[in-house]
Design brief:
Distance between the termini: 30 Å
Largest sheet: 9 strands, mixed
Structural class: alpha/beta
Shape: globular
Number of helices: 17
Order of helices and strands: HHHHHEHEEHEHEHEHEHEHEHHHEHHEE
Strand content: 5-15%
Helix content: 40-55%
Number of strands: 12
Length: 370
């Protein structure tokens, strides 16, 4: 979200054609306040961009043309109308893991639950031409990882990506889809329903402008975001020359953990994970391999856990806890079941969130998380 004028005009500058990461950094050395740059460009003044004799006039001309306050406000209004959030590199809500990588995107467009980008994420990628067994294994692993609190990141492509997202959703967890198009563009079209489910239980992310169509050339660059958001990546299936191979290389460059599912050596889809294993990737025999690598204990909803927890809760908090043990519920459903005023329920639910017992999800849906 653009919280202040500095972020707003940083976003304007970062969106400028021919202004890449390095050029952006150089301009900001001379104009630490992008609003000042916008004002000078709007007035048609000579700009001291510090880009050299050849580049400065070219970028100056572009900035003069783009310093149109009315047009820029219309762009922001369009983004808001589409319910798209903008996270900028200089903002506090920019994902900290992504901030660490080489040449991080200066901004991200997000639809859905943007806060999950700040949580512990794990990527799962693989081929579009997945085997049935590969899909099943991916789905099961993603489900168990999501049940244990990891946010699953993938690219919403057919095959392994789809299995990863669906597994996370079936585990009542969150998932993030990083697209090679605008966040308001559903690609592939057959994943329209999955797209909507992700919006309700996670986030759709892209560094391409809203409305940007899908293009094969845009997929490799987006893979650096998939790994950049994540502590590690699991390569489920893929050929040696594939998008998953590019993703694995990004992970290694970004010092992320690389995991791989061993496969039948006769399968084309097994060549990449088997190669990665031969090069030192961690062999995954199930979700527990990844959970153990990050010292995550599998969740235990035993009666003993309840007995330790319940003495901390007052009567209404206990009642809500017991209701949510039956399954996720909306605020409206909780109100009907508890027969208490909404302000009282919200106060109790807020305390349960503070205690780390309950989590609020998009759509005013609440669920138990311990």
């Amino acid at each position: 979200m653009l919280h202040n004028e500095q972020e707003k005009y940083y976003f304007w500058l970062a969106m400028t054609p021919n202004v890449g990461t390095k050029t952006l950094a150089k301009i900001l050395e001379n104009y630490p306040d992008p609003e000042e740059l916008f004002f000078e460009a709007e007035q048609g003044k000579t700009l001291n961009l510090g880009l050299g004799e050849k580049t400065t006039p070219k970028i100056t001309q572009i900035l003069h043309k783009r310093a149109d306050r009315v047009r820029f406000d219309e762009q922001l209004a369009y983004i808001n109308k589409k319910e798209i959030e903008v996270l900028t590199f200089i903002g506090d809500d920019y994902p900290p893991m992504l901030r660490e990588i080489y040449s991080p995107p200066p901004f991200l467009f997000v639809k859905g639950y943007a806060e999950c980008l700040m949580e512990d994420c794990f990527a799962i990628v693989g081929t579009r031409h997945a085997t049935r067994r590969g899909m099943e294994n991916t789905n099961n692993i993603a489900k168990e990882l999501s049940e244990n609190g990891l946010v699953i990141v993938s690219g919403m492509a057919s095959g392994i990506d789809t299995a990863a997202h669906m597994g996370a959703l079936s585990g009542n967890g969150k998932t993030i889809a990083v697209l090679g198009c605008g966040v308001d563009v559903v690609y592939p079209r057959e994943n329209e329903r999955l797209y909507e489910e992700i919006l309700e239980n996670g986030a759709i992310v892209s560094d391409y402008l809203p409305g940007t169509p899908a293009d094969p050339r845009r997929f490799p660059p987006r893979n650096r975001i998939i790994t950049g958001l994540s502590h590690g990546v699991l390569v489920a299936e893929g050929s040696l020359k594939s998008g998953a191979s590019i993703t694995a290389n990004f992970a290694l460059e970004q010092n992320r953990d690389v995991f791989a599912l061993p496969a039948d050596i006769s399968l084309e889809q097994g060549k990449l994970p088997n190669h990665l294993i031969s090069e030192g990737a961690q062999i995954v025999l199930g979700a527990e391999t990844i959970l153990d690598a990050y010292n995550i204990n599998e969740r235990n909803f035993s009666e003993e856990t309840d007995e330790e927890l319940l003495p901390q809760l007052d009567f209404l908090q206990q009642a809500l806890y017991n209701l949510l043990k039956q399954g996720d519920m909306t605020l409206e459903q909780l109100t009907d079941a508890a027969e208490r005023p909404v302000p009282e329920l919200m106060e109790a639910l807020t305390m349960l969130e503070i205690l780390g017992v309950v989590e609020k999800m998009p759509g005013n849906i609440f669920r138990i998380i311990r």
